[in-house]
Amino acid sequence: MSQMTAGVTPSNEGYEGAVWNILGQTYTLKQESNQSMGWHAIFPPGTFVPPHIHPTQDEFILMIEGEFELWIDGKTHVARPGDLVRMPMNIPHGIFNKSSGIVTCFFWVAPTRKLRGLFERIHNLTDPVEVVRIAAEHEVDFLPPPA
What we know:
Elements: E1 19-22, E2 25-32, E3 37-43, E4 48-53, E5 58-65, E6 68-72, E7 75-79, E8 84-87, E9 93-96, E10 103-110, H1 115-122, H2 128-137, E11 141-142
């Protein structure tokens, strides 16, 4: 990984061919450099990313289709098409598709750090406990479930 390269990543392709199945969600890598990483995401109904913290990255979501319920720093928010979600580093957040429809969106983080390695390691993994363990090795810290 180094500087960003110029060019176009086609709509139906992942950058360098990278497409991951992350706990039922489809992440298609669109850009990667040391400074940032972006991916298109599809969240089927009922899928989610539990509350977690990125201690070394800011994270963003640009909503394309559908509706997310978000938990950010203890507050509930709703994001709809056209909305931009801002999740600064060290702020706990969770992402939930509680609707009956698919959510499509574009995520990015800055800087990239170890996130691609995380996605590569948890691709097609179905054990949430193992996902949490591997995530901690890649600078993503999942929070314990609420009591």
